[in-house]
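Posting for a labmate who doesn't have an account.
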Amino acid sequence: MNWSNREAVEELRDCLGSTDWDTFRTASNNLDEYTEAVTSYISFCVDICIPTRTRVSYNNDKPWFTARLRQLRLEKERAFKSGDKDRLRLARYTFTKAIKEAKRQYSERLEQQVSANDSASVWRGLREITNYKTKSPHSMNDLRLTNDLNEFYCRFDRQWNSPDSDPDSDSHTQPPPNSYHISFISFIQPEQRHPPFYSRPRHLQTAPAPHHTSLHFGE
């Protein structure tokens, strides 16, 4: 999305400013429906007012591989399919020369970033060159893992009697579990509730602030 277009941003701001937000509140039965309706409407206004542009990227593309290099690569492929050896030789030479020049310019830009002590940009560029990707952390929202933890800690709640003890005797029974065991078990939930909506932070910045909106529904 092109947020640099001031006219489009102003149009979006006018659209959101002229909206009757009480309509969403009266048409909703609870807070979840109200929030989902508002965020969906904001996304709808953004799609209408803010222009979008589609860009195609490939996983093997390097940051120094510019749009001109893509055109030269396509020209080399067309020359190869045409069967013209002279044209193919010229296309290969032009493509190879352009690659060396693009690498040199990108190397100079990295050197300038190092000289300017811009370590964040340097490391970001190195990760793009090496195609390094951080490993995503394992999700803890696993129902089986939660059940295993509950089963592990619930063993403290079980009343075990020794084989030689009298079942009617209260002197040999195991004392009740400590309170912190019960608190920990009650803290573990078998599932977590995910938010029913998602809104981009940039959308919320553009949307006007609510004017003391009441959260009582069904009025």
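Reply:
Got it, the structure tokens are right above this. Residues 178-188, 192-199, 212-219 have pLDDT under 50 and may be disordered.
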